[in-house]
Structure formats: C-alpha cells, structure tokens
Amino acid sequence: MSLLVVFSVIFSAIAVFVIATVVVGREARRLDAVAPRVVYEIDAAVEFVANRLPTETQSRLTMDELRGLLLGHLNWLSERNLMPADVTDRVQDIDTPLIVDENVLSAFLLREAENRGVELLDDVDVIHVVDAHNAYFAAIGAVGPRAENP
Asked: Transmembrane segments in this chain: where (predicted)?
C-alpha cells in the first residue's frame, strides 16, 4: 500500500469523525432548547385518573362523567392561556413560574359537574379528580415541579 493511500484513508476517517461530531453536537444543542413533546390522550387520562381515585369517589362517578370533568379541566386551562396552541418544536421561553390555584380549579369543576348533571359528586371527590389529573400531567411531562413557597 502506498503512503498516499494510507494518508487518504486516515484523512477521510478524521474528516468523517469531525463532521459527525459537529452535526451531533449541533442537534443536541437544538433539541435541548426545544420543549419536550407531550401528548395528552383523553382515554389514557381518564383511565389514569380513574385508577388513582379512592373507592368512594369511583363509586360516585361514571367514566363519562369523569371524562367530562377532565375535559372541563382542559377547558379551564385553555381559557387561561395555559395550553399553548402550537407547541411542536417550541423553544422553552418560560420567564416566570406559573402557579395554578387548585382551590379555584376545584370550584370551577364543582360548577362544571353541576352543569353536566353530576349530582352525587362531593367537594372531596373533585379534589381527588384534580390531584389525579395533575398527576397525569406530571406523568406525561406536561407540568413543571410544584412551587416550594406558593
């Protein structure tokens, strides 16, 4: 083998390594700046929440009523601009922490339950639904950590 062939092979290998390193580094930096993709699936959310509700609450709510409450929760978030319309490859741009008051949300869901004709629902049941739904959001990566000093 001639010296020129050996030199060409070594130079080509180094060039490929450098190009691959630059491309991988650039993509890693780009992906680090982009919010992770979170997929909310209502059927999965209903099942997740239903499995985490106490037995007493489960006995007072049908799956359709629970679905309605979760949709009401999503509507509440949307009305307060807490659900951005387009999040695909969106750069993380949260400047200030956002704190959601669960008491206000619970009151809204109690009213929502009344509007939907859910009669047997208790205040504590709504709190269990909110807690379980928030746990689903956390499980899929849709929310940040709880505030230390709200």
From this structure: 6-24
150: in domain: no
CA distances from 95 to 52, 80, 98, 134, 149 (A): 33, 17, 9, 22, 17
pLDDT in tens, 91-141: 555 566 666 677 778 888 888 888 877 776 778 888 898 889 989 988 887
Cα–Cα distance, 110 to 119 (Å, whole number): 10
Q: Note whether 51 and 96 are same-domain residues.
A: yes
List Cβ neighbours of 12 (8 Å cut-off, separation of 6 or more). none
User: Is 129 within a domain?
Assistant: yes
Q: What is the pTM of this model?
A: 0.66
